């Protein structure tokens, strides 16, 4: 009896001992930065000396900084193009993949291959493909006689960036939705057909509601991505033209390391995180439905 | 009649999807062809009249003289990605074993803490983490690219979930045969859970190889830059050398594409597993 107790104690000690490796690691690389984040939030500091406490000045500065809110609106402009297009595209892709019999693997892999393209290389690739004398404009010119300033006009630049991010993620999101589609029992559709439901009714009354968890997941991923977007605008447009593609991440990095103002940059990062949390919370609150798949 | 209609619709769907798949592959094809055709043909032709490796030679040899050591950067990227991936797999396996197979008081607390951590987006910590690296005097060194990432809460989470499903009988049997904990973890638990190991490894490797913002901030020396940052800086200053830039992009993309093609099964599993 006492031996078993001793063994259990030994096991507990060992378990905690091993787990504390992670706790120590997290304390250094997560806890310490977390404390610094709070210090930065309420102080003024330029990487030298010790931070000076300034109360809520950084926070009021963010609230009244037109450039910061411009970058936030840029993210919303990005989402305005990105989310509807990528969601509808991924949904169509998932439905088509569900119906396809021949070459399914080839098609799925072709779309997914885009997802592993490396951020810097694919930005360079697309900035050439969509350049003024690039292949896309050349095709448009011979077909319709038009040339589109994809990345050089303030009206087009964010849309073009959204397009290439769609190229990258449509396969990934599509596969998430496809996994959701295959989980819907066929018997539901058969029962609906017996009741005389058309394909539109089946789509809106069965497919869409039962796909709700997957759609919410894609939305959450897309929103998270939108607020963290950095490489594409940094590489392709550098935030221009006329700051139309300047994103919060780019603004944060230049503020911290070129203008040497880390306290203000950290405050912006917290705001961006809160805005993205807020949006995700609202979406889950208003759109998420409990789904029971038998 | 209706059967025929459905069939022809199905044929059209197949054709459309094949066509779209080709469109999705087109940028890769264009990039690759641009890297092996003479400079004059990059914007004028899709298929080259003559195959050339001059752009690769330029980026791998001449760029070195322009202070852009691409071969070195390639091996730095490879070294950093492999080191981080191996470390993450080892640490995740050991810690997940403790979290799933030992009973102790703080166990659920630690696991919940890991889930809680995953809620915070990484960019919130970029600047404080930079300050930590600075205080540790690790800026502008490869350690700054490796040390903060040798453990992964996400990796521990994924492996713990998977280890929980492995029956304890295997462990008991090994213990009776006199196996130690490390033997059990690396010879029994990991092989039994090799799909989750592949997923954690794959996503970690791709994440590190593709990371751009962090190395851009912490590495200033061209001779310590990983490939992504060096390629960006080359494109920034010598963007007119379109051929070599394309060759550099191919070199940077190729490892991920190869890994994806080799491990596509694990990749697909990873996507469907992230749903739970």
TrEMBL record, chain A:
Compartments in which it is found: Cell membrane
Q: Does the keyword Glycoprotein apply?
A: no
**A Gene Ontology biological process term:** transmembrane transport
Indicate where this protein is primarily found: membrane
Ranges annotated as spanning the membrane? 21-42, 78-97, 109-130, 156-179, 210-230, 264-283
Please give the Pfam families that the UniProt record associates with this protein: BPD_transp_1
Q: Tell me the InterPro entries matching this sequence.
A: MetI-like (IPR000515), MetI-like_sf (IPR035906), UgpAE/MalFG_permease (IPR050809)
Residue ranges occupied by any ABC transmembrane type-1 domain in the UniProt entry? 72-283
Membrane topology summary: Multi-pass membrane protein
Q: Give UniProt keywords alphabetically.
A: Cell membrane, Membrane, Transmembrane, Transmembrane helix, Transport
Task: Report the superkingdom from the record.
Answer: Bacteria
One GO CC term, this protein:
plasma membrane
Which family is this sequence assigned to?
Answer: Belongs to the binding-protein-dependent transport system permease family.
* Protein name in UniProt: Sugar ABC transporter permease
- Report the source organism: Petrotoga olearia DSM 13574
Q: What is the lineage of its organism?
A: Bacteria, Thermotogati, Thermotogota, Thermotogae, Petrotogales
UniProtKB/TrEMBL annotation, chain B:
Which family does this protein fall into? Belongs to the binding-protein-dependent transport system permease family.
Looking up PANTHER family in the UniProt record yields:
ABC TRANSPORTER PERMEASE PROTEIN MG189-RELATED, ABC TRANSPORTER PERMEASE PROTEIN MG189-RELATED-RELATED
Where does the ABC transmembrane type-1 domain start and stop, copy by copy?
74-263
Q: How does it sit in the membrane?
A: Multi-pass membrane protein
Q: Which organism is it from?
A: Petrotoga olearia DSM 13574
* Parts of the chain that traverse the membrane: 12-33, 70-98, 110-132, 138-157, 196-218, 238-263
Protein's GO biological process: transmembrane transport
Localisation per UniProt entry: Cell membrane
Q: Name one GO cellular component term.
A: plasma membrane
Lineage top rank: taxon: Bacteria
Q: Which UniProt keywords apply?
A: Cell membrane, Membrane, Transmembrane, Transmembrane helix, Transport
Q: Does the keyword Coiled coil feature in the UniProt annotation?
A: no
* Name by which UniProt lists this protein: Sugar ABC transporter permease
- Gene3D superfamilies registered for this protein in UniProt: MetI-like
């Amino acid at each position: 009896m006492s031996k078993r107790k001793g063994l259990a104690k030994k096991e507990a000690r060992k378990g905690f001992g091993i787990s504390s490796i992670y706790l120590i690691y997290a304390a250094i690389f997560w806890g310490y930065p977390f404390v610094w984040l709070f210090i930065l939030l309420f102080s003024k500091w330029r990487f030298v000396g010790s931070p000076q406490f300034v109360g809520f000045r950084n926070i009021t500065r963010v609230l009244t900084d037109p450039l910061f809110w411009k970058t936030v609106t840029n993210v919303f402009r990005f989402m305005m193009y990105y989310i509807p297009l990528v969601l509808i595209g991924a949904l169509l892709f998932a439905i088509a993949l569900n119906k396809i019999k021949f070459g399914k693997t080839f098609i799925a892999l072709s779309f997914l291959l885009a997802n592993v393209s490396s951020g810097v290389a694919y930005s360079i690739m697309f900035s050439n493909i969509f350049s003024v004398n690039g292949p896309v404009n050349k095709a448009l010119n011979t077909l319709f006689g038009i040339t589109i300033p994809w990345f050089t006009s303030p009206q087009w630049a964010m849309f073009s960036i959204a397009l290439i991010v769609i190229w990258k993620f449509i396969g990934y999101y599509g596969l998430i939705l496809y996994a959701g589609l295959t989980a819907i029992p066929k018997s539901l559709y058969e029962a609906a057909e017996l009741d005389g439901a058309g394909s539109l009714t089946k789509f809106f009354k069965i497919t869409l509601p039962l796909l709700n968890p997957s759609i919410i997941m894609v939305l959450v991923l897309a929103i998270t991505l939108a607020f963290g977007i950095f490489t594409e605008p940094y590489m392709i447009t550098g935030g221009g033209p006329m700051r139309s593609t300047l994103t919060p991440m780019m603004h944060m990095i230049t503020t911290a390391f070129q203008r040497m103002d880390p306290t203000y940059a950290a405050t912006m990062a917290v705001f961006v995180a809160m805005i993205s949390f807020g949006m995700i919370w609202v979406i889950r609150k208003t759109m998420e439905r409990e789904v029971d798949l038998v | 009649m209706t059967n025929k209609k459905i069939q022809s619709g199905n044929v059209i769907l197949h054709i459309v999807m094949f066509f779209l798949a080709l469109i999705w592959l087109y940028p890769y094809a264009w990039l690759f062809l641009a890297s092996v055709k003479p400079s004059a043909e990059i914007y004028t032709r899709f298929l080259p009249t003559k195959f050339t490796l001059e752009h690769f030679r330029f980026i791998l040899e001449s760029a070195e003289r322009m202070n852009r050591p691409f071969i070195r950067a390639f091996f730095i990227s490879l070294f950093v990605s492999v080191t981080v991936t191996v470390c993450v797999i080892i640490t995740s396996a050991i810690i997940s074993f403790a979290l799933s197979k030992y009973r102790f008081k703080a166990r659920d607390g630690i696991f919940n803490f890991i889930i809680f951590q995953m809620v915070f987006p990484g960019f919130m910590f970029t600047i404080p983490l930079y300050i930590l690296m600075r205080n540790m005097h690790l800026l502008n060194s490869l350690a700054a690219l490796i040390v903060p990432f040798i453990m992964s809460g996400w990796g521990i989470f994924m492996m713990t979930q998977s280890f929980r499903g492995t029956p304890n009988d295997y462990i008991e049997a090994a213990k009776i045969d006199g196996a130690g904990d490390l033997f059990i973890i690396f010879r029994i638990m990991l092989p039994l859970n090799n799909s989750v190991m592949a997923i954690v490894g794959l996503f970690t490797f791709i994440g590190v190889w593709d990371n751009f913002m962090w190395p851009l901030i912490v590495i200033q020396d061209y001779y310590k830059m990983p490939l992504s940052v060096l390629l960006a800086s080359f494109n920034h200053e010598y963007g007119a050398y379109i051929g070599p830039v394309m060759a550099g992009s191919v070199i940077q993309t190729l490892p991920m594409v190869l890994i994806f093609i080799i491990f596509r099964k694990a990749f697909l599993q990873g996507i469907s597993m992230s749903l739970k």
